[in-house]
Amino acid sequence: MRTVFNMMKAASLLFFVVALSACTVQLAPQFDQRLYHQLLDTSANTLIFLAETSSGTRANTCEQRQNSYFQLIGQFEALALQSRARPMPDSDMLEKINAALSARGLNTGDMDEAASAAALDKVASSIAKMQEQDCANGLQPIIVATFKNEILISLDQAITYESFLER
After folding, report:
1. For the chain, what are the domain ranges?
2. What is the mean pLDDT of residues 33-57?
3. By the 8 A CB rule, do 126 and 152 touch?
4. Who contacts 59 (Cβ-Cβ below 8 Å, separation ≥6)?
5. How buried is 79 (Cβ within 10 angstroms: 0-12 exposed, 13-18 middle, 19+ buried)?
6. Distance (Å, rounded) from C-alpha 51 to C-alpha 49?
7. 3-class secondary structure, 139
8. How do residues 82-139 score in pLDDT, each as one tens digit?
9. How much is the average pLDDT of 22-46?
């Protein structure tokens, strides 16, 4: 009798372990290799553009850079849209996670969308502001460096998030 009980106990434990291992909770959107590679390519193009303007610009030559500005802004807005278009995990699970993190005093931010989407929006916005400043007054090297720093921070956030999803 005791042997049967032990076998049932072992079988129950085995079933529990198998059932638990089959449960996976997805807390982030799926990795999108195309989006990731487009992000890397657009980032490289942005850094080239920033290098070209790093010694400063004059407002009367802004028209020569307009297509570059428009292309970069459009590419980053498209990447943000692609990032948002991926399905997010079950919001009930995210709410529970947010509640647990908040209880520990941690800021959860907006988990209704991929973190990269907000960072990509910030890049597009920074480039648009740079364009506005460039066409109105030109850009001094220190202003270009300031925009570059702001853009690099957001690019780092987006690339880090997207590369993390690849694992």
Report:
1. 30-165
2. 97
3. no
4. 134, 135, 136, 137, 138
5. buried
6. 5
7. strand
8. 999 887 665 665 565 456 546 666 554 555 677 889 999 999 999 999 999 999 999 9
9. 80
SS3 82: helix
Alpha carbon distance 64, 23 (integer Å): 56
* Total Cβ atoms within 10 A of residue 3: 7
Could you give the CA distance from residue 158 to residue 82 in angstroms, rounded to a whole number?
13
Two tokens at 141? 């090297």
**Residue labelled with tokens 């740079």:** 130
Under a CB-based contact definition with an 8 Å cutoff, are residues 120 and 43 in contact? no
The vertex-75 CA angle with 167 and 94, nearest 5°, equals 40
Asked whether the beta carbons of 162 and 36 are under 8 A apart, the reply is yes
Instruction: Please report the sign of the dihedral spanned by the C-alpha atoms of residue 45, residue 46, residue 49, residue 55.
Output: negative
Phi, psi of 147 (to 5 degrees): -60, -40
C-alpha–C-alpha distance, residues 84 and 69, integer Å: 23
Neighbours of 133 (CB within 10 A): 19
